[in-house]
Design brief:
The protein is mostly helical. It has two domains: 45 residues; 224 residues, MetI-like fold (Orthogonal Bundle). The protein is 75% helix and 0% strand. Helix 4 packs antiparallel against helix 11 and helix 13 runs antiparallel to helix 15.
Length: 303
């Protein structure tokens, strides 16, 4: 009798698990569609006929495939200038952020650092309180950084969140015995950090690198506030101007055919602009994904 009851209970449990898995899978599929469809729509809308897009005829498949909006986007010299500026800001801003964040995180992970708790509290305080936009602008202006490329590299190059994640990673991954063994062998702190800690910390280095690179690549607010020279504009700010004005080619180089073509594809330009600005990051991310996933999971276990 007891065996029969256990079997009946097992059947009920299996059925409940089966229906639960079906519900969970359906919810996951729905969430996947909700996330992926806007991305898919942007791609097919950017290569479809502008009239079909404006009339709502493009839903699942592109209509009258063409690349006229991309031709207009890449025809403008400001786009290429913005690409050069953004690559410059991203590379050097990321290097500056890494050179500050990783040593700071390692120092805070050391239990023998005097005043480590107070320093960490001051760091965390900056995440919740700031001086405001006007005081920040006055400080930047007093340092003669306005309208210079350095303002795009320096501002936003250090993130307390990244320091905390890297600090947690160092604490949970680098054993203290390794430091003790290196100290016995006469290895100084700097050499230990560069020769031992960094090679063992590729996941967190990838996480911090990707975070800083994406932040600098997508940055436009600092350029909007601190830059007035259009030759220094990052790509995102140029694309923002395009989306606002719906006008890409301006000045004496404009010909009537360009104006007509621009007006015809104005509805699809915004989709092409999104792809142009996001494609480099989407290309780089798969190569860092395995390090990114491992590093962010390990770095978020503690703290």
């Amino acid at each position: 009798m007891s065996v029969f009851i256990k079997k009946r209970q097992g059947i009920k449990d299996n059925r409940s698990d089966f229906f639960f898995n079906i519900i969970v899978n359906c919810m996951l599929i729905l969430a996947l569609v909700i996330v992926l469809y806007p991305l898919y729509f942007i791609v097919i809308a950017s290569i479809s006929d502008p009239n079909a897009v404006n009339n709502g005829q493009v839903l699942l498949l592109p209509k009258s495939i063409g690349f006229s909006c991309y031709k207009i986007i890449f025809r403008d010299k400001d786009i290429w200038q913005g690409y050069r500026n953004t690559i410059f800001y991203t590379v050097f801003g990321t290097l500056l952020g890494l050179s500050i964040s990783l040593p700071a995180a390692y120092s805070l992970s050391r239990s023998d650092l005097i005043g480590r708790g107070w320093i960490m509290k001051y760091f965390v305080l900056t995440m919740f309180f700031g001086g405001g936009l006007i005081p920040a602008y006055l400080v930047v202006k007093s340092l003669h950084l306005t309208n210079t490329p350095f303002v795009m590299i320096i501002l936003g190059s250090v993130s307390v969140y990244n320091i905390i994640v890297a600090k947690t990673f160092f604490e949970s991954t680098i054993p203290k015995e390794l430091l003790e063994a290196a100290s016995i062998d006469g290895c100084p702190n700097g050499k230990f950090f560069f020769r031992i800690v960094l090679p063992l910390s590729k996941p967190i280095v990838a996480v911090v690198t990707l975070t800083y690179a994406v932040s600098h690549w997508n940055s436009f607010f600092n350029g909007l506030i601190y830059l007035s020279n259009q030759n220094l504009y990052p790509l995102q700010l140029i694309l923002r101007e395009i989306l606002i004005s719906s006008q890409l080619v301006q000045g004496e180089n404009v010909d009537p055919d360009s104006i007509v073509e621009l007006m015809r594809v104005a509805g699809t330009i915004k989709y092409g602009v999104i792809i142009v600005s996001s494609l480099p990051v989407l290309i780089i991310y798969p190569f860092l994904q395995k390090y990114f996933t491992k590093g962010i999971m390990i770095g978020s276990i503690k703290g």
